[in-house]
Each structure stands twice: as C-alpha cells, then as structure tokens.
Amino acid sequence: MDVAGLDRFIVLAKRQTYVGDGVKAAPSRSGAHDLTFTEGEWSYRDSYFGGTDFLGQETVWLRDEPVWAMNYYGYILRPELINAGRAGATIKAALSAMYAEGRFLGGFEWSGPHGVYRDSSTGDAAHFHGREVIEVGGVEAYALDYFGGLVKP
Hints:
Structural class: alpha+beta
Number of strands: 9
Shape: globular
Order of helices and strands: HEEEEEHEEEE
Radius of gyration: 15 Å
Strand order of the largest sheet: 1-2-3-4-5-9-8-7-6
C-alpha cells in the first residue's frame, strides 16, 4: 500500500466533501447523511448519523477494494456556549486550514470567532487515534473522538 498516496487522497477527499460543502450522495443506510468523492482508482465515502451529536465512518477504496477507514463520534458538551451551527463553522474553517497544509493528522490549533479549535492525534494514516475539541472562553464546549487506519484482508 502506498501510504503517502493514500494520505494525499484522504486530504483531497476531505477537502472536497464535508469541508468543501460537497454534493450529498444517496444515503448508504436508512437515516444516514453521505458524501462521496472519486479520483481515478480511488473513492471515498463519509457516512454519518445525527446533527448536534453525530456518529460516522469514512471509508476509502482503491480499485473497489476497501483499504482504509475511520470512525468518529462528535458531541456538544456545553450547549449554552456553542451550538451545532457555530461548531460546524469552526470545524470547517479549522479543517480547511489544516488540509491546506496537506495533512489531516497531527497537532493543530486554530482560533476563530466561535472558539479555539484544537486537534491532537497519534499515529499516521496506517493506524491512528485522536480527539478534536472546541474551547469557548477556556471551557471545552465540543469534542470529537476518532480512530482508524488501513483495512487489510
């Protein structure tokens, strides 16, 4: 597996879907929200449930074979400090800045009008786990836990 090529594709797919307000795909499961992206022999699907609190999975296929996946769960901890709209705007702006650096893992911090976004993770595209948070006035108001890596037969 070309992990560097996979990493490049993951960043591109993430930029083109959720962060880039990509076109929604038909839901893969009842009640799901799905976003897809394809480039050459690579394809990507982000499928999630919920809104304010949400759970999802991103999957990458190479030549129609699943090669990578990531699961995540995000939730509002302090609704009196941040709502889903402000959290979403903060996440999209912060992730857009991180993806502009050509990566989706590693420490990252971004400050915006609705709070401070922080992401921390260990590992690389082959095997990783991490957490993103938004702090408002120094208080953690939103969090998302994620993990994933290569899928092998």
